[in-house]
Amino acid sequence: MNESSKILEEMNDRSREVFRRVVEGYLASGDPVGSRTLTRSMSEKVSAATIRNVMQDLEFLGLLDSPHVSAGRVPTQLGLRMFVDGLLEVQELEIEDREKIDATLGSNAGDVGSMLDRIGAALSGVTHGASLVLAPKHEAPIKHIDFVSLSHDRALAVLVFADGHLENRVFRPAPGQTPSSMREAANFLNALAEGRTLSELREVMSHEITRRRQELDELARTMVQAGIAAWENEGEAPARLIVRGRANLLEDSAEAEELDRIRTLFDDLERKRDIVDFLERAEEGEGVRIFIGSENKLFSLSGSSLVVSPYMNADRKIIGAVGVIGPTRLNYGRIVPIVDYTAQVVGKLISDRGKG
């Protein structure tokens, strides 16, 4: 049992109700909730003074905070966590929300990236937040790899798969690369790549680079490593992560300080810092997960929450994730079933495509 669950279990009914109503009121309005407001909604008739005493106890426990003197209370991050884990009532998915997501899918035409972009736009529109869609890795066998110099500090990696799928990635090569070293790197990879998936190639390549280190000059070896990094690990994340609905968060944030935090969030996303952390957290288990504020370091500076669910292919293997970013006062009860349904839809679409 974690700390928040233990605190919740030890509360009496009155404290639990005051806490729940403060959080629900804050999530609905974004404003602090005062004792006089609660006297009108409590299931038992109690005085404002009694409620204030309960609020003070909850504040002492670290569950509530008072942003201004005598202006009511708001939940802390710990309080929101405890509410989400122990008191959140998840609603049924509304028919209108389901229909909006379904309508965007259309005929399932276009490539997977286009389909996921449409789904991200739908998810953002339905939730009025920013959506994240983590696309699946392409795991078909590789047919050919090539590197093309675009300028002194930019190169294009071209990856052709055996099923006809083509991926192009622009990346920054190490200083001093030449067309000759690029050709050598491509030849080295192609000798290893055919018939192998990208994941398999990366594993084999690390062994081969060690074994044949003397056969490759320094520049070519760096190129090989940079080229694969265009698809794997941190270099892979930008192409796999689709972000839609930035304007929704900016429009909802009236205060300059909050706007700055939201911009910081998207600056982080655009630089793709800590994306690996997001991927690991999103892909490590089934079901919808909720990260509040600093629980996810990617969003800790923005005061935001992330509601995310992995999706699976026909083999029940987790291959990606969908999620919604919003302020910590998200309507979690409504957002959770939307994210859950969207993840199921994406998984089914990916599985159906695999059968085709």
Automatic annotation (TrEMBL):
Pfam families for this protein: HrcA
Domain Heat-inducible transcription repressor HrcA C-terminal as annotated: residue spans: 115-336
SUPFAM superfamilies: GAF domain-like, Winged helix' DNA-binding domain
Biological process annotations from GO: negative regulation of DNA-templated transcription
Keyword Repressor in annotation: yes
Single GO MF annotation: DNA binding
Coiled coil: none
Lineage top rank: taxon: Bacteria
UniProtKB keywords: Repressor, Stress response, Transcription, Transcription regulation
NCBIfam families documented for this protein: hrcA
HAMAP family listed in its UniProt record: HrcA
Function noted in UniProt: Negative regulator of class I heat shock genes (grpE-dnaK-dnaJ and groELS operons). Prevents heat-shock induction of these operons.
Similarity comment: family membership: Belongs to the HrcA family.
Protein name: Heat-inducible transcription repressor HrcA
Organism (species): Rhodovulum adriaticum (Rhodopseudomonas adriatica)
Taxonomy of the source species: Bacteria, Pseudomonadati, Pseudomonadota, Alphaproteobacteria, Rhodobacterales
Record gene name: hrcA
